[in-house]
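hey so u asked for the seq, here:
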Amino acid sequence: MRPFYSYLSILFLLFACSVEKNQQNTEMDQASIVSNNEMPAPILPNKVLNVGFLAINGVYNSELMAPFDILQHSIFHTDPGMRTFIVSPTTEPITTFEKINIIPDYDFSNVPDIDVLIVPSAEHNMDSDLEDEALINFIKKTGEEADFIMSLCDGAFMLAQAGLLDGLECTTFPSDIAKFKETFPQLTVHENVSFVHDGKAITSAGGAISYDAALYLAELLYGKKVAEGIGKGLVIDWDLNKIKHIRKNG
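ran it, structure tokens below
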């Protein structure tokens, strides 16, 4: 009977080795995925970046204020930092969805060159705003020339209408994803993530987690220490590894 048990022992050892090898391969695959998703070295711009926030009547407070708050605070943590401003079709006061009145810094005729275009969500981004040729043309031209573009919530509809998300992966407000897919069936749209970064486009689910996408951009541009410093000043414990996001070819 001893030979029989010997055969069983050999078979058990072979099975154990096979399992261990498969586990090692799985760990290598996971390590490869993690490596591919790691943040690159920060860009460290050598100039002040002009960050233009496109705000129109009906803009939602969270999607405008959250990224503005984050990116404006860059000046306290790095030099050069960002110059943030609001641009609108005219310089007439606009009213947010929640009834805060805002005076834009620039209109389409006098806005300076924009390095980062931010498009917060507004009340009619899924309907009448998509038919506003002046608005869409401004987004298209400015977005094509900008180094980065970012949408918050339904601002993704505006970027998509301007053709700026073609060939890229993206996301939008969770309950509007079905509408987004229906309106732009050519796009790859992700669910259950805070934001998606593909190419020069960063699209955010919006709402209170609009802070995530803005802090991510700060880290991408200026490094982890700067992003953590900005977060600390706003009582945000910033850790990108805890944020559900997708980074493709950025």
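Residues 49-247 form a domain with the Rossmann fold fold (CATH 3.40.50.880). DSSP finds seven helices and eleven strands in the chain.
lmk if thats what u needed
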